[in-house]
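Need a sequence for this fold. Nothing fancy.
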């Protein structure tokens, strides 16, 4: 991973600040490479200071690029004040969306002469545009998830519980080389599949129903995310039709997706396709989201946002329909990387209707 401190300095200039204080750990990792659980990063026009505690001394010296390393005993902000790391800084931009009220009060008390400038989404557009190295990590995570999906299909049979299958998904991800799972997997069968974010329960899988499986890996810090809906035996005509409606909507959105589109316009491609088939009310969530060092990153691909999608952004395309009255739900999710002339699908698992 390259040193991205210069890109943080661009944000500093954009907000007419003398320094930037980063507190979001994923943002800090993106900027300088640190993967631990306690850090702050101060970036100034001609210097950068990375602060962490003694647990991470060796790790910080191995990972951090582009910043002076401070191993701190005690509070990181107290050290920044004692070491005069913000000397002569009149205006300091901070991440208001990653700072609690208590933390802001601490900043103001520790640096009485500083004007603290709250900035939300400080680095979102820069982080969203993934370089080839980042995409390689996402691909690696996605290949692990795809291998897990192939391996668990023999476990999908009557009598197995949703919780059993979710546990197997976690185990298989770790066994196949994932650093972690990107999130607790969703396994939702039959009527539970009509809940968009169902949690696995002790319900046993049964013949003649759909099963929604949503899962992801973390590899080298980057996340994957994939949803497939499978049938255990014949789920009936309504569920089959719902599946094809979602699949056609996803295809249309992937065909349309490109950098320069707005998020609401991309969402509308899938939403309009589902509404045309009379299931518009059953599509109750956004079309997708960015992903990278976090499984849910900016941008949110939604009817409720109007952000322009940057070149190189990786987003999920995951339409769904959820029909409690019919006892089924469907979601299909791929990851794509956006370019000006279209998109590249990073997911290799077929979306053909699958009966186990």
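Here you go.
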């Amino acid at each position: 991973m390259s040193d991205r401190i210069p890109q943080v300095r661009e944000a500093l200039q954009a907000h007419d600040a003398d320094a930037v204080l980063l507190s979001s750990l994923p943002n800090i990792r993106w900027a300088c490479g640190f993967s631990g659980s306690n850090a702050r990063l101060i970036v100034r026009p001609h210097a950068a200071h990375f602060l962490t505690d003694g647990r991470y001394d060796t790790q910080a010296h191995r990972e951090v690029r582009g910043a002076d390393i401070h191993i701190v005993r005690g509070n990181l902000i107290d050290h920044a004040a004692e070491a005069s790391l913000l000397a002569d800084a009149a205006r300091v931009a901070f991440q208001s969306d990653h700072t609690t009220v208590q933390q802001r009060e601490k900043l103001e008390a520790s640096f009485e002469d500083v004007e603290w400038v709250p900035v939300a989404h400080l680095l979102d557009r820069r982080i969203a545009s993934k370089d080839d190295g980042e995409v390689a990590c996402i691909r690696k995570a996605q290949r692990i998830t795809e291998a897990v999906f192939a391996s668990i299909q023999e476990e999908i049979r009557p009598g197995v519980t949703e919780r059993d299958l979710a546990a197997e998904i976690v185990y298989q991800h770790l066994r196949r080389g994932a650093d972690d799972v990107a999130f607790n997997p969703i396994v939702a069968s039959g009527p539970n599949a009509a809940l968009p974010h169902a949690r696995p329960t002790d319900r046993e899988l049964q013949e003649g129903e759909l099963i929604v499986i949503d899962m992801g890996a973390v590899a080298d810090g980057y996340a994957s995310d994939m949803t497939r809906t499978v049938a255990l035996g014949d789920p009936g005509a309504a569920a089959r039709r719902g599946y094809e409606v979602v699949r056609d909507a996803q295809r249309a959105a992937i065909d349309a997706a490109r950098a320069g589109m707005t998020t609401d316009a991309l969402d509308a491609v899938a939403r309009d396709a589902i509404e045309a088939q009379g299931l518009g009310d059953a599509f109750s969530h956004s079309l997708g989201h960015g992903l990278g060092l976090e499984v849910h990153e900016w941008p949110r691909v939604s009817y409720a946002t109007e952000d322009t999608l940057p070149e190189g952004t990786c987003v999920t395309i995951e339409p769904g329909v959820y029909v409690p009255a019919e006892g089924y739900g469907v979601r299909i999710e791929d990851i794509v990387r956006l370019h000006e002339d279209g998109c590249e699908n990073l997911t290799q698992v077929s979306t053909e209707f699958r009966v186990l």
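For context: The chain has a mean pLDDT of 97.
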